[in-house]
Amino acid sequence: MSFTYVQLIRALRQAFTTSARRNDLAKLILIGNLGKAPELKTTKNDKQYVSYTVATKSPQAPGPDGGTHFTTWHRVLSFLPGSNTYLQTLKPGSKVYVEAAYEIREPEDGADSSTPQGQRQIFLRHGASMIKICVTT
């Protein structure tokens, strides 16, 4: 399939428009390992959820210690009953794949930077059809 220069410019202009479209999407994908066994917890409103951590590795320039990867820890909360039952069966070190739409919240004005309110937070937004947890051990 070949495109003329004009067709290519039109396609790029449509792909990178600044106007909102119905099919716009912001998605976050984590592929990593469970840091510890997922924990079942309860909110103040008696809603159960599972808290777990996923470790991901990113390449970095070799440092003095020779390391070539940087580990980032992600804390994930799941409020989906079906996923929560399955999550509780996983063992630390299990390979997981988590996919969800997300929302970024900026720190609150005047909040202590050592608290969650004083830090940038990424909230995963997913329904039962959008979260995928694939595991290999």
TrEMBL record:
For this UniProt record, give its keywords in alphabetical order, as a comma-separated list.
DNA-binding
One GO cellular component from the entry? mitochondrial nucleoid
A GO BP term here is: mitochondrial DNA replication
- GO terms for MF: single-stranded DNA binding
InterPro entries annotated for this entry?
NA-bd_OB-fold, Primosome_PriB/ssb, ssDNA-bd
Q: Which Pfam families match?
A: SSB (PF00436)
Please identify the protein, giving its name as recorded: Single-strand binding protein family-domain-containing protein
Q: Which organism is it from?
A: Mycena pura
